[in-house]
Specification:
alpha+beta, 60s Ribosomal Protein L30, Chain: A, 2 domains
Amino acid sequence: MSTMKTLMKLTLLGAACGTLTMACSPTTPTRELVEARSAYNEAANSNASELVPQHLLSARQSLQQAENAHDENPGSYEERSLAYAAHRRALQAMALAGQAAAEQEKAKAEKDYSDLQAELLRDAQKKAADNAQDAANKAAALDRAQRDIASQDTQLASQAQALKEREAEIARKQAELEKKQSDLAAAQALADKERKAREEAEAKYKAALASLEEIGKVKEEQRGMVITLSGSVLFVTGKADLLPLAQQKLETVAEVLKNQDPSKKIVVEGHTDSVGSDAANMDLSQRRADSVRSFLVAKGVPSDRITAVGKGETTPVADNKTPEGRANNRRVEIVVK
């Protein structure tokens, strides 16, 4: 409120002083000062005094500074600079007033739209309620008319219709019962078939594991099922070619692996004892692992499931200082992960 009063006083004072200045000043004001006066008068007569009074006050104060500079030193650089600043502030006040007015109009339009939407929604809801009530009334009237018509039927017609409906219901239920019995029989047959297939698969798997246990050690470890085959059974000492007996044993292994979950990966690891150089043992273990892998792939194990790795003498399972220990270390391990 104080800002508005100050602005009105300054405006009236400025108008009086401006008139006095133009009447009494012997020197013509600069173009900048004339433009500043004109812009301020336009801003003062606009809605800027209501919407952005602080900006209009700032323009008025700048104009007064320009007027003072004109009185002290007419036509000076200071007068032109201050007048230019006053002109810009007056234009800014009008622009900001226009923006504020536009925002007010926008807010009013949004409120009017919201009010209209709410009114339309209320009208639609009322109309829907009226339609629902009208439909309910018509349904009630229709129901009464149907009951009146039904009551006019003869007793014989009613009994005949009831009997017909009863017979149709019995026939429908009989058909449903027969279908349920058929479905139950089919489901039971499917369950029996699945159970039998499951039992056969389990029996085949157990038999395969038993066969594996006859030719090597089979155990479950954290890394998966490990099938350990003695190197002396598979290869001639220092060689990587499979012995005939080894091929027979590996055929059993291949059958078991083919019946495993196809998503499981298989790693064939070759191991040696510590006799010989590290490089020679690593090469021998890799060639032996490759031989076992190639044989299993030839017997139907998918090649993308199986890899071969030579471990050399790096992972012994027994002491290499004894013949028995070295024999245990010369092995091939097939890991199913």
